[in-house]
Known about the structure:
Largest interface: A-B, 89 and 90 residues
Distance between the termini of chain A: 60 Å
CATH class of the largest domain in chain B: Alpha Beta
Shape of chain B: globular
Helix content of chain B: 40-55%
Helix content of chain A: 40-55%
Bound molecules: iron/sulfur cluster
Oligomer: heterodimer
Order of helices and strands of chain A: EHHEHHEHHEHEHHEHHEHEHH
CATH class of the largest domain in chain A: Alpha Beta
Strand order of the largest sheet of chain B: 1-10-7-4-2-3
Strand order of the largest sheet of chain A: 2-1-3-4
Number of strands of chain A: 8
Radius of gyration of chain B: 26 Å
Strand content of chain B: 5-15%
Amino acid sequence: MSEMFFDAAPNATRVAPARPLPRDYPATKPGDVYLFGTCVVDLFYPEAGLDAIRLLEREGVRVHFPDQQSCCGQPAYTSGYTDEARAVARAQLALFERDYPLVVPSGSCAGMFRHHYPALFADDPVLLARAQALAERTFELAEFLLEVCRVQWRDQGPPVAVALHTSCSARREMNTHLHVRALLDRLDNVERREHDHESECCGFGGTFCVRMPEISGAMVANKVESLERSGAARMVTADGGCLMNISGAMEKRAAGMPSEHLASFLWRRTNPAAVSQ
Amino acid sequence: MNQAARIPAVELSSRQLKANAHEALNDAQLRTNMRTAMDSLIAKRLAVMPEAEREPLRELGNHVRARALSKLPELLERLEARLTANGVQVHWAETVEEANAVVLDIARRRRARAVIKGKSMVSEEMEMNEALEAEGIESLESDMGEYIIQLDHEKPTHIIMPAIHKNARQVAKLFEQHLGEPYTEDVDELIQTGRRVLRKKFLDADIGVSGVNFAIAETGTLLLVENEGNGRMSTTVPPVHIAVTGIEKVVENLRDVVPLLSLLTRSALGQPITTYVNMISGPRKAEERDGPEEVHLVLLDNGRSQAFMDAELRQTLNCIRCGACMNHCPVYTRIGGRAYGTVYPGPIGAIISPHLVGLENAPDHPSASSLCGACGEVCPVKIPIPDILRRLREENVKPPAAASAHPLRGQGSKYSPGERSLWRMWVRLYTSPRLYRAFSFALTRLRRLTPARLGPWTLNHAPPRPASRSLHELAREHLDHDRRGADR
Ligand code: SF4
C-alpha cells in the first residue's frame, strides 16, 4: 500500500530512522565479550559491574574490561556540548577494536553507542565506519544474557515481590524493557509487580536533574509514590542513572524500598553461594 | 521596528520558564487536573491504535510529510494556483504583522464590526483577537475551550484542548460570573449555555475565521476537522471566510490526506474520525444558495522557513498538530501549558518556538525535557523530537557569533564560557586514564567527605555515596591481565 508514497525526492528532507533498530542476534554464543562498565557503575555501583562480569563468565564467556575506558560521553552530548562528547567518545572507540560484542549494563549508555555514536562521527568516514561496527555489536546486558547466552537459570532465592523500573533509553532506544521483564519472569520465586505509570520517566535525564531540579524532583517524587503503591518489597533497574535518582530520592524522603541494579539482583538470585550469604 | 517591541506580550513569560514551572508545580489543583486529563487522553489514543496498525501507519505518515516538505515551494505554488482558480484569494505573510495587516484590510473593506473564530493556533501566533480589538472589531472565539479561556482572559494551554487545565467546577464559576448563568457543574448544561450564547453571534458576524489542518495542493482544498460544528458555522455562515495557516500545512494530494487524517484524529482524542470534516474549495458559486461570498487564505511563515533550511530541524515541520506529544510528556503533564509562555507548549512547543520567537525568547525550552523520548515514540509523523531538542541545546550553547551555515535566531542564548570550560575539564578527566585513575581513587577513598549539600542534587536526593573501590579496581583484581588491555 505504501509504495506509492515512497517517491519522495529526498534532497534535504529526512525520513525518520527506525528506533529501536531492528536487530538479529548472533546464533552462537561468542567466546569473548567486552564489558563497558559505565561511569556511574564504576564509582557508585561497582559491585553491579562485577556481578555483570560474573553472570557472563558463568555462561562460559571470557570478559574483557579495557582498563582505559571511562564514560560514553552522554552527559555532554545531551547537554549540547557535542564536540566535548565526541572527544570522549573517540577515546572509547579506540578501546573496543576486536569484533567482540560490547556488553553494557545500562540501557542509556548502550543506546549512546548504538544510536548516537554513528551520528557523532557522521562527518569522519574512518571513525564513522568504526562507530557503525561498534553500534552493530553493542548489547545491553539483559538482552545479551537472554538472546545471546540464552541463560537457563534456577531461582535460588526466597519468594519476593519486586518492581521493575526501566530507563527510557532502554525502553525506547533499545527495546530491552522486554528482555529485563523476561529475565525476571524466569525466576520462579520472584513476583514482578507492575506499578502505575510504569513507562513514565523517573526524571533523571542526565544533567536535566540538576538543570531543572524542581521539575525533575516532581517527576521522581511521583515515581517513588507509584513504586510504593505497587506493594513491591524491592526495586530493580538496569540503569545506574535511574537507580541513583530513585534510590537517592527514596533515601531523602525516608520512603520507598531497597533498590539495586538488575545485575546484582540476578546474580544473587541464581548463585547459591550468594543467596546463603 | 526593533526586536523587543515585536514580541507579543504572551511571549515575555517564555523567558521565565523555570519560575513559571515553580508556580505550576505548587498548584495542586492544576497538577490534578492535568494528570487526570492526560491519563485519559493517553488511554483513548491507545484504545484506537493497536500496535500492529500503528507503526506502519506512522511510517507512512512520516513519508507523506517528508515528501510534501521535499517539494514545499512547488506545492505551495500549485496550491495557490488551484485555490485562485477556485475563487479563493491567497495572501502570503512573512510575519505576524503582515498576516494581521491582511486580515485588517479585509475587515476594513467589508466594514466589519464582528468576527467569529473557529479554533486556530496560527491566529494565536498572530494574536489576531488583540489586533482586531485594537481596531474596535469584536473577535469572539467559538470553540468551546477557546471561548472559556477568552472569558477568563487566558491563552490556550494545549493546542487541541485550550482549556484542558480547567475542571468543570472552574468553568461553572466562570460562566456564573461572566454570563450570569445559574451555577451548575453539569458539563452538558455548560456546553448548552455556551452554544446558546454563540449561536446568535454566528448570525451577526461579518467575518468567520478558521485554521486549516491540511491544504491540498492538487485540488486547492482546505481541510478542517472539528467536533463542535463551530468550524462549519464559522466557515459557512458569515459572508467572508478567512482561513489562516502555516506554510508547512500543504500536502500534495487528496490521497495523502487519508493516512494523515487517520493519524491526526486518533492521536489527538482517540477518535476514528472527528464529528465534522470540512473540505472547503471556494466561495459560494452563482447557482448556490449558501456559503461565504469571499474566501481568503493567509499563508504565514513566521520563522518556519528557518526550520526548513536545516535538514534535521526541517522535520519539525512534519507536525500535524495532534497534541499527542504533549499528552505523553511527563514535563508538560506536571507544569501545564502556561508555564512555557509560548503559543505552542509541550514538546512541539519546545522545538517550534525557537523558530517562531527566537532562541533568545525561549532559552530554557530545549532544556525542559529529560529526553525520555515519550514524545518521539507517539508522534504520528515520527518527528525525532528528542534529537531535535538535543540539537537545539547545541545551538543554544554555541558562542553567539560562531559561524554556521544557517545560524538560528538567538543562537548562543545559553552560551556560558564557564560551563564550556567545565566540560573541557570533564573531557580531560575522561580521556586521560592517569587523571581518571587519580580522580576515582580520591573520590572513593574520600567518600565519607561527600558534602551533605551538593547543589541542586541534594534538593531532591540524599547526598551521593561513592563506593569504596571503583569497578576498575575490582576488575583489575578479578580479571587476569590480558583481559584488561586496550587491545592496541
Ligand atoms: S510533534 Fe508530533 S505528536 Fe506533537 S503535535 Fe506535532 S504531530 Fe502531534
